[in-house]
Q: What sequence folds into this?
């Protein structure tokens, strides 16, 4: 049954978090990583929205992005 849940309730994307929080994807990503260039209020807003949407970092996407930056 667990494998079917994915189709019923897709994982929130960073794009969805950014849109709901009213910020860019880059800002949302930086906020979720506690980057100092993002204002505290913005970080809290993004984290709150991410929690409400059930956002979780996708390790596969994260690894691919790291490879792209390194390569």
A:
């Amino acid at each position: 049954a667990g494998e079917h849940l994915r189709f019923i309730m897709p994982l929130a994307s960073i794009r969805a978090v950014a849109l709901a929080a009213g910020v860019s994807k880059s800002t949302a990503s930086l906020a979720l990583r506690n980057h100092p260039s993002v204002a505290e209020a913005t970080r809290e807003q993004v984290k709150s929205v991410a929690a409400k949407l059930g956002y979780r970092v996708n390790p596969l996407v994260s690894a691919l992005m790291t490879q792209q930056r390194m390569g």
The mean pLDDT is 84. The first helix runs from residue 2 to 8. The chain has five helices and no strands.
